[in-house]
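Milestone M4 deliverable, item 7.
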Amino acid sequence: MSKTSLQYQIPQKGGQFTKVSVPYPSPGPHEICIRARAVALNPLDWKNRAFGVTVQSWPTVLGIDTAGVIDSVGEPIKDFKVGDEVFSLCGMENRSGGFQEIVTVPSHLAAKKPASLTFEEAASLSICYLTAASAITVGLHVPLPHLDPDPTGSSPLGSILVLGGSSGVGAAAIQLLRLALPSATIVTTSAAKHHAHLVSLGATKCFERSACEDTSAIKAATPGGSGADAILDAITAVASEPTVFTALNPAGPRTYSQVVTGQNVEVPEGVSSTVIFGRQILGAKGGMTAMPGLASLVQSGKYKLPVKAEVIGNGFDTLGQGLDKLMRGVSGTKYIVSL
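Output delivered:
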């Protein structure tokens, strides 16, 4: 009898998870197969289940973040071997979606798991870090020193407003911005209960989201009270609070880096805007080393878990209820299913 593996497929838009046996995967060139030990739940997962936002065909295997043990390695890979503990961004095809026993991904999407992290913690990292790195490098045009140690020129940004600092992407961005711009003023918005944590990650000053309605306090926290040079919007906050654009320095670069969430944003004239996806960093200078670069930052203590990794289920059969809980909203926490 042929060896098989289990996938947890969504058969159609709005459907429920279905357990399906598929032929046991083997890696192609430059690919690795990972036996999953933990998977993270992301907003895109429930949006794809409900609306098929990025789904190209059905049935589909969802899941963006995973961590586990290498099951097999394709040629000519030398950096990984069977048995290595790794964490990885997952791919867009069914064989590389995260919600299955064996995930097949290009090796550059994975990195060896730091020994200090559990599988559950490691599974929480990839997409938030990569999206934050994209928002900074592609959106704000700020090189990250761990990926591009010898950049051409220097960034003109002296102050950045991060909207949604307690989100996984926002908290990741605060850390990466502090590494890239050690003397910059980093102002952020979040619920007050998260402020101490965000300051520990590198934020200069934190405000509640209501500060976006009247940006005078935010502007006062920037050098000379002139306003922020740039906005990094991790949660599309400006869709509901467009007045936050008044926090920008009228004489500054006026740059807006918008992490895509599916919401439309009207950007004022004179503001340079870029819509950001997590995988954009892979095409930037040094981007193909983004994942091992993250592992090195964690190992050196320069990068901490952006948000708490909370296990809300054990086993793939708990994915559905986990996504239902995520749909109801969460702050400062990444939901994880342990396997």
